[in-house]
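Dear colleague,

Thank you for sharing your sequence with our group. We've completed the structure prediction you requested, and as agreed, I am returning the results in plain text so they can be pasted directly into your records. Please verify that the sequence below matches your submission; if there's any discrepancy, let me know and we will rerun it promptly.
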Amino acid sequence: MTVTAKICGINSAAALDAAVGGGAAMVGFVFFPRSPRYVTLAQAAELAARAPSPVKRVAVLVDPTDAQLDELLAAVPIEVLQLHGNETPERVASIARRTKRVAMKAIAVETAADLDAARAFEPVAEWLLFDAKPPKSLASALPGGNAIAFDWTLLRGRIVSRPWVLSGGLTPENVAGAIAASGAAVVDVSSGVEDRPGMKSPARIRAFLAAVQSAGAPAARKAHA
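Please find the predicted structure tokens below.
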């Protein structure tokens, strides 16, 4: 099995170049003002222009309005809309129709019941992203990027009709174990490759991508033996 990665919260040219140079399949730009990884449309447009094809450019959004989507897509070349708010299945379907972009719905996970609830999004989202549900005790919690993991084994062997991404608490040090525990073919990292919140480390980005490639390589070799 080949495993690919998304580096999220890109907000500098150095981080973008490290992600692209290390082999990331997707790069994410956060348009949620409360996030330390927030970028303006102008910043995102400049960074997105540095990402060559076939790297997919992802906009991370929280309950966007139609006007916000129109403004974003007029300014920034984006292929994927990652919806990280309280969007309903009907809203996800509407966004996909309106924008003609790939919709990726983020699902907050704590228990198997949360994964069961995600089935409602399978008919309308081209991708699902499974992230850890922030604990109620975390007053400053963001919709994502909280450096919190969930029980990755909840996903092992689970049949999901859409491609899916594992996110939440991943680092260069634990991503191989997360892939083995969950069976993920795509992983997503943000805070796990930072020196401090919002400050991406090119060295940790490269280490994360190297760990992902190493984790996928033995399975890929076995599959082709």
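Summary note from our side: The CA atoms of residues 23 and 200 lie 16 Å apart.

Kind regards,
the structure core
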